[in-house]
Amino acid sequence: MSKKLLRIVEGSGAREAGPVAEEKLLAGKPQQLTEHFFTNAKENFFCGVWSSDAGKWKLSYSEDEFCYIIDGEAVITDAEGHSERVTTGDAFCIPAGFEGSWETIGSVKKFYAIYEE
């Protein structure tokens, strides 16, 4: 069976919406929307589009994630308190083992690709 190119088209993925988990919250009551487009056969690589409104929550990564900010801005702070502001057009990776926080300023939308061992 041949494999085909999979186009990523907003509105065509499986959607999941809801609040950030209460135990992770640091500020606000942010709502998230994830539109999932692809999972590989080994179920360790995923991609999609994620968005949230204003709020701040704890991060603890077991996976490696590539992110591209489609719209908006956020502040990512590591466990040592070093902060990075990411805005529309920024691309970055968050490595497995990263601990810290994510703060959405207003609203943000990102494309993500996740690899997990």
Describe the protein's architecture and organization.
With 117 residues, the protein is mainly beta. It has a single domain, classed as Jelly Rolls (Sandwich). It contains no helices and eight strands. Strands 1, 2, 3, 4, 5, 6, 7 and 8 form an eight-stranded antiparallel beta sheet that branches. A hairpin with a 4-residue loop joins strand 5 and strand 6. It is globular and about 50 Å long. It starts with 13 loop residues before the first strand and ends with a strand. This is (S)-ureidoglycine aminohydrolase cupin domain-containing protein. InterPro entries: RmlC-like_jellyroll, RmlC_Cupin_sf, UGlyAH_Cupin_dom.
Could you give a short description of this structure?
This is (S)-ureidoglycine aminohydrolase cupin domain-containing protein. With 117 residues, this protein is mainly beta.
